[in-house]
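Note to self: the last two entries modelled the partners one at a time, which told us nothing about the interface. This time every component goes in together.
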Amino acid sequence: MEILRYDLVIVGSGIAGLRAATAAAWASGGKISIAILSKIQAMRSHSLSAEGGMSAVLYPEKTNDSLELHAYDTVKGSDFLADQDAVQVLVEYAPKEVRYLERIGVPWTREPDGRIAQRPFGGMSIPRTTFAADKTGFFIMSTLFSETRRFDNIHIYHEHFVTKFIVENGQFRGVTAYDLRKGEFKLFYAKAGIIATGGAGRLYRFTTTAHSTTGETLGYALRAGMAIKDMEFVQWHPTALVPSGILVSEAARGEGGYLINKEGERFMKRYAPQRMELAPRDIVSRAILTECMEGRGFQHESGMCYVGLDLRHLGEERINKRIPFIRELAHKYAGIDALSEPIPVRPAVHYTMGGIHTDTWGRVLTADGKWIRGLWAAGEAAAVSIHGANRLGSNSLSECSVWGRLTGEQAAKYAMETPALPSPEEKLVEAAKKEEGRIFDTLLHKEVNAPSPYEVKRQLNDIMEEHFGPFRHGSAMAEGVAKLKKLREYTSFRIADGSRVYNQNLKDALEIDGMIDLALVVGLGAYARAESRGAHYRLDYPKRDDVSWLKHTVAYLYGGEIKLTYAPVTITKWKPEERKY
Amino acid sequence: MKSVVIKVKRYDGKKTWWQEYKVEAPSEKVSVLDLLVKVKEEQDPTLAVRYSCRMAICGSCGMVINGVPRLACQTLLSELKAEFITVEPMWNHKVIKDLVVDLEPDFEKVKKVKPYIIRDIKEIYETDKEFGQKPEELDKYYNFAYCIQCGLCMSACPVVATHERFLGPMALNAGYRWSADSRDQGWKERVKIIDAEEGVWACHLAYTCSAVCPRGVDPGFSIQLLKAAMLRKAKRP
Ligand SMILES: Cc1cc2nc3c(=O)[nH]c(=O)nc-3n(C[C@H](O)[C@H](O)[C@H](O)COP(=O)(O)OP(=O)(O)OC[C@H]3O[C@@H](n4cnc5c(N)ncnc54)[C@H](O)[C@@H]3O)c2cc1C
Ligand code: SF4
Ligand code: FES
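The predicted structure of the combined assembly is written out below.
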């Protein structure tokens, strides 16, 4: 086992992780050593699938927009579960981040005078979504990755799968990782850490997220004493391509696309008469599923029900200029030309609002609110919380960039103020060696009776789709929780590949191992929350209940069991009101 | 359902062999990647394949399919007329295992051309201004910024095959993309790296790079634009 010593270890190289790295590199004047670990090649992180854009108030005088309005839209979109002080931080820093990204070379789409162009997005009352055609995430990701190359003190570790966070006496000590390419196990011993491992869409089967968006690190976080907040809030994006689940960005509706049912009717008029197709995602997703349940959807050969996303009236020029990727994807993966036919779409899991419990500045907290010293979380993996019960499209890229920067700066300062690391003490090395043993000796050489990780994943996906979908019910969820608990009894997996170099089979098993715990957090949180709020919709409790449930769910591990507690929501300006669009 | 046979060139660190798998494809619209993942999950978990986005944007799944370097997730069954699909790892790269190759040398070459905005760095990190860019300035490099670093052009290039130090289409394209950006002032610095035997002048204009690029980046053309700018002694390409 190799031991590497760093001032700062960043786990995850999506927009949040990369931005944390450039911020820390600059803030420390190049003085601290920074490692970025990514389980896939660093520039391939899921952030690059983001299509639509990044929200920020850029030219308030020209557009009549204001930070206050952006904050209000976000809070209302969250169904009042967002922490309003955190939302304030988001809206203040987002424009600075868009401009930072401009300065490092993101090819933002422009107005004729050279300003950055902005488009409308669901739940945003004013066009404030900045974009780079419909490959926004790709361009931000690739530019940020390139930017890290400027700094010699940023070291990139491609294909290093983190298996464990090490926390001792309330202090972060490092992580262990499996280097797939070399087939080696390593301890990254560090003063500070930032967790930026993204979401967990792959808990479900029908999802817009990349294969790598599995969320196991959130399960590992629980084991290291961290807490997970608001995980029951799972966002379904209304328009995923049938049958693959590939996203058709909200930009399609932002640019003026219609949703139509089998009768050719723009059905959103019955659900959100004012905002129509641009109502928030939870509302549009439920509208589509209701159309389907009431027999007004189309039927796909795969058995899926869908509705049509109609772009025909937008014309070829606008489509090619503003949303070319959507046309390309629909053509490639659904075999239709958006110029002449509606695109077949239905809701798919897209985003997890919940994540690692942090304070407003991204510092990682235990369930009782204590900071784990030296540790931060940022991006989709964290719940700060600005999205509450429902995220507005384009607020996530802003969040990743803003909290990437904020945590990077804080971690750099902390690392500079902390004395140089001595050699790791025996106990730490022992803990890492034990982890190596768990993986290479126990997991890798297992009896043949255990189930294959893929079989377990199939079961997990089935349970999540069936029991914790967009329409939930107490009795179905109770059953789901029981099934998840059974799944959790599997203590080992059958790993057919016996090699160490690039053993994806082993990596897949490690993912599943963390995902099961996380799924149970979703299940328990959803079952307990006896109300409907944002993306969490219960047929047996169809109303929001601010008296009992205006609070964050906080899950933690105690004696091997997942327990729930609750934390208050920070309300500074806006009292909860009815959410109408 | 349609039965398909996939023949995969495998490597386990010691030996190389061809292995055949028979898979049921649920429709003609599935990709070669979908089929490989199906093999992995249902028949042979020891098969190693790199993949993530499954929508042709992350650049993970480059491989040689029926003799052509392509992205597996962008290659649909319906496009392959053959009954038999053969897949092998990308050419011109060291194989790590099965279809997974070592791309780090390619990434290091990109790093050599300084793929970032070169100008006073304090202006980037300590101001809050917008540099600004006109749509016509954006158009100059936009298409070249689409590169997803998949390495397919490197795999197809006949010069890369024999000239190890050649920067190659992936890195040279990055050299053009950054130098052609109106916000950048680094052309002079990059010329020193690119105007060399292992830089643009090694290119033989085979254009196989552009032929295989899954994002239509046209790296062959960016190499020509670089050469032209050097010969003209232009301020930027
Ligand atoms: C298709 C799609 C389109 C979207 N479009 C938009 C949009 O237009 N606007 C918007 O605001 N949001 C959008 N979102 C949401 C947004 O893209 C994500 O929330 C955001 O990119 C997450 O970034 P991140 O940096 O937190 O993590 P990610 O980009 O997901 O990166 C996670 C990183 O963690 C690493 N990692 C994970 N586990 C481990 C481990 N065990 N060991 C080591 N490394 C690990 C991964 O390798 C990766 O580098 C979209 C989401 C999807 C699915
Ligand atoms: S230029 Fe094209 S083929 Fe080459 S690495 Fe970039 S995207 Fe891939
Ligand atoms: S899986 Fe991302 S490009 Fe193929």
